[in-house]
Amino acid sequence: MGLNVIMMGPPGAGKGTQAERFARARGLPKISTGDILRDGIKRELAAAVEAKARMDRGELVEDATMIEIVRNRLLQPDTTPGFVLDGFPRTVPQAKALDEIIDERGKGPLVVVDVVVPESELIRRLAGRRICSTCGTNAEPADGASRAVCGKCGGELVQRTDDNDNVVSERLKVYTRQTQPLVDYYRERATFRVVNGAQAPERVAHELDTVIGDAAAVGAAMGTEPT
Ligand code: AMP
């Protein structure tokens, strides 16, 4: 059975880390639109480079650009068993476009999880967050390292340019204004779930596993599976 998951939540909710973990456990690709953009900037791809100024200000990139990126990514064969989306959709037009893409694909139900964390905790987490300048992922320092070194690849850990104080407060405002309405868009669906992201990561992972499994079963029973 195909399993399509959207991991929603504000910046700093831990959804990227959790999405990665869940995707790995289920053998699904984790698709992060933020990672795709950052990778595109590194490789100097025109659309991503154009998006950089908005990203650096904490604003959203245009819907048309993002929808195109996701539509192309979901055509890749590794998404046949499903996918875990992190950072998309972020607006109602993006969510509507994704519904259309999923209808066209006809590969399993869409499970939507909202990872909820209080704002004070988000600000604290974002101030301390570092990513690896080599492998690009959210990273923990190597064991016992006093230097900022990635535990995975040894690369230098740096703060994301959009994790500084001013940009963080803009990103949280943008989230409340543009992405929070998505919760209303999805709330009534039988496959929508909420998870408390303020708990220990292990606990969040366990809850996610349970609620996604449950929602996927509900979705499949509703006949969203391809015939
Ligand atoms: P993230 O890594 O998900 O926090 O994304 C970093 C930045 O990339 C965001 O602040 C936006 O500028 C841009 N971005 C990522 N995904 C989207 C999206 N679905 N819609 C619009 N902008 C996005």
Strand arrangement within the widest β-sheet reads 2-3-1-4-7
Bound molecules: adenosine monophosphate
- The helix/strand series, from N terminus to C terminus, equals EHEHHHEHEHEEHEH
Q: How large, in whole angstroms, is the Cα Rg? A: 17 Å
Class derived from helix and strand content: alpha/beta
Detail the poorly predicted runs: none
- CATH fold annotation: Rossmann fold
The name of the CATH superfamily reads P-loop containing nucleotide triphosphate hydrolases
Distance between the termini: 12 Å
* The number of domains: 1
Characterize the biggest β-sheet.
5 strands, parallel
CATH architecture: 3-Layer(aba) Sandwich
Features:
alpha/beta, two-stranded antiparallel sheet, globular, 227 residues, 51% helix, Rossmann fold
In a nutshell, what does this entry contain?
The chain has 227 residues and is of the alpha/beta class. The chain is 51% helix and 13% strand.
Characterization of the model:
With 227 residues, the chain is an alpha/beta fold. It has one domain: P-loop containing nucleotide triphosphate hydrolases (Rossmann fold). A 5-stranded parallel β-sheet has the order 2-3-1-4-7, with helices on both faces. A two-stranded antiparallel sheet has the order 5-6. The radius of gyration is 17 Å and the shape is globular. The protein starts with a strand and ends with a helix. It has 8 helices and 7 strands; from the N terminus they run βαβαααβαβαββαβα. The model has no long low-confidence stretch (mean pLDDT 90). 51% of the residues lie in helices and 13% in strands. α2 (33-42) packs across α3, α4 (63-73) runs parallel beside α5 (92-105) and α6 packs across α7. The protein has helices at residues 15-26, 33-42, 46-57, 63-73, 92-105, 119-128, 165-187, 201-224; strands spanning 3-8, 30-32, 82-86, 110-116, 131-132, 157-158, 192-196. It binds adenosine monophosphate.
